[in-house]
Every structure is written in C-alpha cells, then in structure tokens.
Write a structure and sequence with these properties.
27% strand, 4-stranded mixed sheet, alpha+beta, 273 residues, globular, 6 helices, Zincin-like, 2 domains, 5-stranded mixed sheet, single chain
Length: 273
C-alpha cells in the first residue's frame, strides 16, 4: 500500500467528475499477460501544443490513468491497450492535462532551489544555512548549518548532489529511530526500512520487502514524518484504507487527522534540489 504525495493528480479526482466504483480509474480493455514494457517517451498534440509524456504499460496495470507531477505527464495503461486508444484517452482529457501542466510549471518555478554558499534548506520544518568551502566533495552537519566541502571546479548541480546525499543520510537515521518507536507502540518488530526517491508517493509498505519512506520528508516537521511512518506501519496490520486501518493508525498516532491535513499543505513547500 502507498501514501500519495500531493503532486499525484488523478484524472478521476477532477472537480465535478463522477468517480466510477472501485479504484476510481477508467476501465480498460482486458489486461495483458505480457511482461511490463520499459517506459517510453512520446509526444501528443493537444490543442496548439506538443506535450511530451512518459508511457508506462504492463500486465499489472488494469486501468488507464494520468499522473502529472514536476516531471510532466505520465500515462499508465495495460499492456494490450493500443497506442491509438491511449492517445484518444489523453485527447479526451486535454483540457485537464494542459491546465495541470501549467499549474505545476508555475509551482515549480518557486520550488527549485539553487544550492550555493549562504542558501537555506528546510530541515524538519526550520531553515538551515548551507556553507560551501574547498574540500574533497563531502558534507558534514553542524549545529546551525550544513557544511559542503566541494572540489575546485564544481558547480551548483554538484553542490545540490552533496546536499541531497547529506539530507538522505540524515533522513535514514531519523526514520529508523521513529520507525522503531512506532513499531514498539504497535507491538511489532521494526520492518526493513528503505528510502524512496518517488515523486508521487510519501511512503509504501509491503509485507515482503518492508517499508519505504520518501527521503524528502526530512524537510518537514517531525509530526508529519511520524504520521507517514505510522500510516505505513498500520498497513502491516491492514493492507487497505478501511475503518479498521484508520483505527490502527489512531492507536499509535492519535493526531493523525491534523497531521494528514497539514501534510497536504506543507508538502507544497518542499524544494526541488
């Protein structure tokens, strides 16, 4: 089970749109039994624009879907759906696609962060200064700043990579500690934990592979991180979003409703490095 980021936009959550029963996706032709195809980059004419999109097809996909995030448009489809059917599906919702692409373009202008000496990164909801000095391409956390030691000739992209790795290490250590805390409340041994780099999910849980948490949560206040971890842990008990599932969440994180609302708002503030 997964917990979605705010960027994931489902076609079937359009204001005023009728949501079919079940998953909320448009029904598709019979699902394919062939292996998943690698993602393909394609283009489609929508109005007077040429829109690039990523096509993802495979046997596990049962329905056609559209997702828009800062990377652009992604189309999911079962393996046996023809390209003509897929593009007809996109054309049928061209107005929504163009509006949401424009909306995300405007948001991303403000969210992209250039890492330079003196920049400020959000860490657990508070700004932390970045200091860049000559060095061997490594990073160190200090009490009031993140120190990046960068080799001569490096640029802002290299600095962003150093900062990203530092944030991911900080995230993994903190998430492990919080996972142990909430697993104890649930009376379970902490499952395997990994970091996710997903653009459309805060976290995911599998009974086989454990829990993955989006490292970008390290930018947000601790109560929101705790909510996501509690949410994913609850899926070890209930692999659904039934009332029983939310009762499990509440048993280990009673403030989940307020945290869920705040996460939807604060998630929009996460910078893109």
């Amino acid at each position: 089970m997964t917990l979605a980021l705010f960027e994931q936009l489902s076609l079937f959550k359009l204001p005023g749109a009728k949501t079919p029963k079940g998953e909320g996706d448009a029904p598709s032709p019979r699902a394919s039994k062939s292996p998943a195809k690698p993602p393909r980059q394609r283009h489609v004419h929508l109005g007077n624009q040429i829109v690039a999109y990523t096509l993802r097809q495979g046997q596990r996909r049962r329905r056609l879907s559209l997702t828009i995030d800062e990377r652009g448009l992604s189309v999911g489809a079962p393996g046996r759906v023809s390209l003509a059917e897929i593009e007809a599906f996109v054309h049928a919702h061209a107005e929504w696609v163009l509006a949401k692409l424009a909306e995300h373009a405007g948001q991303n202008t403000h969210r992209h962060l250039t890492v330079r000496d003196g920049s400020r990164l959000p860490l657990l909801g508070a700004p932390v200064a970045v200091r860049i000095v000559p060095g061997a391409n490594r990073s160190r956390w200090h009490e009031d700043h993140l120190l990046l030691e960068a080799r001569e000739g490096t640029d802002s992209a290299d600095h962003a990579n150093l900062a990203r790795r530092a944030l991911q290490r900080r995230a993994l250590a903190l998430f492990h500690e919080r996972l142990g805390h909430y697993a104890g409340r649930l009376g379970r041994t902490p499952p395997r934990l990994g970091l996710s780099n997903a653009r459309t999910r805060w976290g995911s849980c599998s009974s086989r592979t454990g829990i993955r948490i989006n490292w970008r949560l390290i930018h947000l206040p601790l109560p929101l991180i705790d909510y996501v971890i509690a949410h994913e842990l609850a899926h070890l008990v209930e692999m659904n979003h039934s009332p029983r599932f939310w009762a499990v969440v509440e048993s280990i994180y009673p403030e989940w409703e307020a945290a869920r609302r705040e996460l939807k708002l604060r998630g929009r503030e996460i910078p893109i490095l």
